[in-house]
Amino acid sequence: MHEHIGIALRGEKVLSLRAEAAEDPSGPLIRQLAKDMLIAMKTHGGVGIAAPQIRVSKRVLIIHSKPNERYPDAPEMEPVIMVNPEIISYSECFDSMWEGCLSVPGLRGLVPRQTGVSVRYHDLTGKEQEACLQGFPARIFQHEFDHLEGILFPLRVADCSDIYSENEYRRRIQGLHD
Ligand code: K3U
Ligand code: ZN
């Protein structure tokens, strides 16, 4: 049984800071941080996580795309751990999707984002990697990258009336009744 790793909630200062670069992407501190993030992401049921969400202001994020209730067509991917990620380019197209966040419990917001991003990062061996992300993985990346910049999804919602409570979201968007 793992020690419980808590999630920082909106209003906590660590979520509004610009996170610091990891000096040694393959060192023991970053490896342990990545393990803790994986545990926290899995226990809390996220499809991604960023280090500030477990109260560590370092530039490390994980994306873990998998099909889910909301996005049944999302690709199934192994978790990808990115240290010191950078955005090389964005696609020109935008689309909007309903996002949630472990640090903003109970809310859903309709967020416009670019449909694709090319990114560069270090893996846990310290090697530089590049990836072109499209669709749901690109969305998760941009959401997690925002965490490293101190930005939470409600700031990205284009129209304030597109922020719903989780229950209202389920009723109105998913058409579920409980
Ligand atoms: O599993 C979640 C989910 C929510 C909405 C749609 C699909 C899945 C919980 S929220 C989540 O996984 C965040 C992770 C966070 F909080 F660490 F940032 C990632 C995310 C969900 C949806 C869109 C973009 C990013
Ligand atoms: Zn989030």
Radius of gyration: 16 Å
Share of β-strand residues: 25-35%
Major sheet: size, sense and barrel closure?
5 strands, antiparallel
What is the strand tally?
8
The CATH topology is what? Peptide Deformylase
CATH class: Alpha Beta
Query: Overall pLDDT, averaged?
Result: 94
Order of helices and strands: HEEEEEEEHEH
Number of domains: 1
Considering DSSP H and I runs of 4 or more, what fraction of the residues is helical?
A: 10-25%
Task: Pick out the low-confidence regions.
Answer: none
Please state how the strands of the largest beta sheet are arranged side by side.
Answer: 1-2-3-6-7
Count of runs of 4 or more consecutive helical residues: 3
Ions and ligands: ligand K3U, zinc ion
- What's the CATH architecture? Alpha-Beta Complex
In short:
Helix content is about 20%, strand content about 30%.
Q: Could you walk me through the main structural features you see in this protein, from its secondary elements to its overall organization?
A:
It catalyses: N-terminal N-formyl-L-methionyl-[peptide] + H2O = N-terminal L-methionyl-[peptide] + formate. The chain has 178 residues and is α+β, with helices and mostly antiparallel strands. The chain has a single domain (13-172), classed as Peptide deformylase (Peptide Deformylase, Alpha-Beta Complex), CATH 3.90.45.10. The chain has helices spanning 28-44, 136-148, 166-172; strands spanning 48-50, 60-63, 80-90, 94-99, 107-114, 116-122, 128-134, 163-165. The strands form two sheets. The protein has a five-stranded antiparallel β-sheet, sandwiched between helices. A three-stranded antiparallel β-sheet has the order 4-5-8. The chain starts with 27 loop residues before the first helix and ends in a 6-residue tail after the last helix. 33% of the residues are buried. The model has no long low-confidence stretch (mean pLDDT 94). The site of zinc ion has 5 residues, from helix 2. The site of zinc ion (ZN) has 5 residues, from helix 2.
